[in-house]
Amino acid sequence: LRQNYLERIAQAPDPAALEEIRVAALGKKGEISLKMRELGRMAPEERQRTGAALNRLKDEIDAALKARRAAMEDAALEERLKSEWLDVTLPGRPRRQGTIHPISQVTEEITAIFADMGFSVAEGPQIESDWYNFDALNIPPEHPARQEHDTFFMHRAADDDRPPHVLRTHTSPVQIRAMQTHGAPIRVIAPGRVYRMDMDQTHTPMFHQVEGLAIDRDISMANLKWVLEEFCRAFFEVDRVELRFRASHFPFTEPSAEVDIRCSWQGGQLKIGEGDDWMEILGSGMVHPKVLRAGGIDPDEWQGFAFGLGIDRLAMLKYGIPDLRAFFESDLRWLRHYGFSA
Ligand code: PHE
């Protein structure tokens, strides 16, 4: 009996087989347990001898089972350690870092340059009311400038006859909001997204502008010119720039000027400050008295200049990016090429 069990234990292939052997020997109806139960019918002397022998056998089988089980667990662990080892001296796999989008980078640069000149940042919503985007800027409902803006309109319920909200077509509504919140004097820029229904190599339906607004007791076009020249020198990193103010018209400025910068293209490279070409970079002017009044500021006491420039356009120029649409296509190869490391 003993030999039989010890042999079977030694040959058991896995813990389940061991458990079967344990039940067969020591379980409630196991061979040894049954033999134990027969002890009652034996003579006292025989019972003592057989009982002691059975107990020893039981302990021996128990110990053999435990030892074999422990050996199996050791072997299994050994096996796992062999198959799951890890070389902690291997170099890590490199991870690609994200980059700063050129538009974000240029917006940062512009904000920093104007901050040096005392301009803080103002903000407004991208979904704007008709009043802020147009009326307050001296563009009444029938004004032809409304058509030129190719506006995206938000939907209103059929029985709601208030004018619909719009996706702001420029950052100029932030002028009004800044006047209402801060009152005069003011020196702010407002960078942000604007929207117009337009799409080709140099236009996307969403693009970015920076609005500038300075209001004080005696502000003139001369201040505007100085600020813009300082800005261009810093932004294009050149010692000398030449700006040309071309008379123009915006409903919210009087007088109005579009501003061109002297430049040249040499072998596909843009040179700022030299050459015979002029490139338009922004719209500007003296804030119209009606606009000051709409913002709650008295035009007899205060005056100001405003300008609006296209961020995307400036980014294309400074970093030699040929197609505006690429900015918004989220092509990772493009973003890695033109993006700025964080
Ligand atoms: N809002 C004008 C545009 O989008 C730019 C501008 C801003 C012109 C401020 C004058 C003053 O074209």
Explain this structure to me?
By secondary structure, the chain is an alpha+beta fold. Helix content is 41%, strand content 22%. It contains twelve helices and twelve strands. It has helices at residues 2-11, 15-26, 31-38, 44-83, 102-116, 130-133, 145-148, 173-182, 221-236, 289-294, 311-319, 332-338; strands at 99-100, 120-121, 127-128, 166-167, 186-195, 206-216, 243-250, 253-266, 269-272, 277-287, 303-310, 340-341. Strands 2, 5, 6, 7, 8, 9, 10 and 11 form an eight-stranded mixed β-sheet that branches. The radius of gyration is 42 Å and the shape is elongated. The mean pLDDT is 92. Phenylalanine (PHE) binds next to strand 10 and strand 11.
Helix count equals 12
Largest sheet: 8 strands, mixed
Low-confidence stretches: none
Question: What is the end-to-end distance?
Answer: 77 Å
Order of helices and strands: HHHHEHEEHHEHEEHEEEEHEHHE
Subunit structure: Tetramer of two alpha and two beta subunits.
Pfam families: Phe_tRNA-synt_N, tRNA-synt_2d
Domain Aminoacyl-transfer RNA synthetases class-II family profile: 104-342
Enzyme class: ligase
What brief labels describe this structure?
342 residues; alpha+beta; eight-stranded mixed β-sheet; two-stranded antiparallel sheet; 12 helices; 22% strand; binds phenylalanine; ATP-binding; EC 6.1.1.20; metal-binding; Phenylalanine--tRNA ligase alpha subunit
Brief summary:
This protein is of the alpha+beta class. The protein has helices at 2-11, 15-26, 31-38, 44-83, 102-116, 130-133, 145-148, 173-182, 221-236, 289-294, 311-319, 332-338; strands at residues 99-100, 120-121, 127-128, 166-167, 186-195, 206-216, 243-250, 253-266, 269-272, 277-287, 303-310, 340-341.
